[in-house]
Fold this sequence. Notes:
Elements: E1 2-7, E2 11-18, E3 25-28, H1 32-45, E4 48-55, H2 62-85, E5 93-100, E6 103-110, E7 116-120, E8 127-128, E9 131-132, H3 134-147, E10 150-157, H4 161-180
Parallel strand pairs: 3-4, 7-10
Antiparallel strand pairs: 1-2, 2-4, 5-6, 6-10, 8-9
Helix pairs in contact: 1-4, 2-3
Amino acid sequence: MIVRERKTKETSIKLKLDVAGSQKIRIQTGHGFFDHMLHQLAFHSGWDLELTATGDLDVDDHHMVEDVALVIGSALQEAWRACATSDAGMRRYGQRLLPMDDVLVLCAVDLSGRPYSKTRLRLKRESVGGLACEMVDHFFLSLAVAGCFTLHIRKITGKNHHHIIEASFKALAQALREALSPAPGAASTKGVL
């Protein structure tokens, strides 16, 4: 179980994460749609996740979304590095082509120690469920940078913005689940990640 806390003048976040969990999930950020997306991420990854966060949602959702992504990413980096150096090892790469009704989303990750994020969701609405659509890409960027991994997410087809965002979180979860799955031996020809 990895524990993290982050307290700033804008947010206060407490997290417990077990990437080899059994989907014991408790999330409370004060933002319903964001909680729903984080629940999808934890559930479809197979994680145990306890996350409580408070912040200046009266200003907007930027600080909350960014800081939660940084905290999850930091914990995820510790988790994948522990997996990479364990006897069980890890696959390192994960990918998912995920359908959700009218939407099809592709996600690929490389738990490599090289942070990079490229999203192409083509969201045109201002917000969904009170979450600014621009914060979806920003969440993924902040998560990948703090998690020190490469992330690509792309919408292949679809128009329903709720489905596009939710499919993106689910696809990421499934890709992370694959990347973190055991695979004995070095995950790199360099011998270390």
